[in-house]
Design goal:
Elements (H helix, E strand, L loop, with lengths): L1 H12 L19 H9 L7 H16 L10 H12 L12 H9 L1 H8 L1 H12 L10 E5 L5 H12 L6 E6 L2 H13 L4 E4 L18 E3 L15 H12 L7 E3 L2 E5 L6 E4 L20 E7 L2 E4 L16 H4 L4
Length: about 325
């Protein structure tokens, strides 16, 4: 009887996902995930917003369903998974009898949320693909706080489109289950590796190959108006610059800079590679970590962090925007 009551009680929490397809059918790029990656890498597809949104959706599906890598997944299947994801907590009929899938979505929820917010993720990928490549004969790239590894995939495309056939790419992710899955997917795609490690510790970088670092991506930032210490961005950069210092002289960074301020917005700091993303203190005796997150620089443009991706909201069908667009 107690089990039946529990089952019925849980039913009361269930809701249907948003209606209709998650993206417009005409905006979905055809092909399996490896085909889309190859077409982008070889300049057969332009890195347009709709193409990159399709890339993210297919990557999202492959991250969850490891056996689907070579399959051209339909829009119906992508929409179904998006619906299962947004209702992973409260429940939905789409998850009936799929306890293992629901546990996976719950355990990987934060990383997947960062990926499936398509307007913001696509904005970051567009900015990443606009970065200069410092040299044309080798490419060592790092993704710090890698999550699903989508920005490591972006670095792969940046290098390949610059004519570098075999970039060397490493991501570092603290959560073991997230690191393991991202590593499996990126290794299967032949893109790079993700290690379970704490990017705030200098020892993490001790085993890197020699030579300059071409690119570093790090989106471990708090949302607008929250103090920087809420996420590990300052600590990661402190460890990175202490460990690699001169090897970062020509590195391309995403974001290119971060703007923070005191609570009142009177004192502003620009955290950038030239000051090791540390800057001056935000006030007498106050470390940078106590500053409030305000803006980022992407592709040379200074943008309030809560407006990242705002102009790309059209990528997601209107009924889905509220539930999917929650990166920051």
């Amino acid at each position: 009887m107690n089990d039946e009551l529990r089952r019925l009680s849980l039913r009361l929490l269930e809701r249907k996902p948003p209606s209709g397809p998650v993206v417009s059918p005409v905006a979905l790029t055809p092909g399996a995930l490896p085909d889309v990656i190859a077409a982008l890498a070889e300049h057969r597809l332009p890195p347009e917003p709709a193409v990159l949104a399709s890339l993210c959706l297919k990557y999202f599906y492959a991250y969850v369903h490891a056996d689907s890598l070579e399959t051209e997944v339909t829009l119906d299947a992508l929409t179904r998974l998006a619906g299962q994801f947004v209702r992973r907590r409260g429940g939905t009929a789409l998850l009936d009898g799929q306890d293992a899938l629901r546990r996976f979505l719950l355990h990987h929820g934060f990383a997947l949320q960062m990926l499936i917010d398509l307007p913001k993720t696509v904005h970051l990928l567009l900015a990443l693909l606009a970065l200069p490549v410092p040299c044309r004969d080798r490419f060592l790239g790092l993704d710090l706080g890698a999550g699903t590894g989508i920005l490591l995939l972006g670095q792969y495309l940046l290098a390949r489109r610059a004519g570098i056939a075999a970039p060397v790419l490493f991501g570092y992710e603290f959560q073991p289950q997230v690191a393991t899955r991202a590593d499996g997917l990126l290794a299967a795609l032949g893109i790079g590796r993700v290690r379970q490690a704490d990017a705030t510790q200098g020892a993490t970088y001790a085993t890197l190959p020699d030579g300059p670092v071409a690119c570093v991506t790090n989106e471990t930032l708090p949302s607008a108006g929250r103090r920087l210490y809420k996420e590990p961005f300052p600590a990661i950069n402190a460890a990175l610059f202490a460990a690699l210092g001169p090897r970062l002289a020509s590195t391309a960074f995403l974001p290119q800079a971060v703007w923070a301020s005191d609570r009142a917005g009177r004192t502003w700091l620009r955290l950038a590679p030239e000051n090791a993303f540390a800057g001056n203190t935000v006030g007498p005796g106050k470390p940078v970590s106590l500053a409030f997150m305000r803006e980022v620089e992407l592709a040379g443009e200074r943008i309030p962090v809560d407006r990242v991706g705002q102009a790309l909201a059209w990528l997601v069908a209107a009924p889905w925007r509220e539930s999917l667009c929650r990166r920051w």
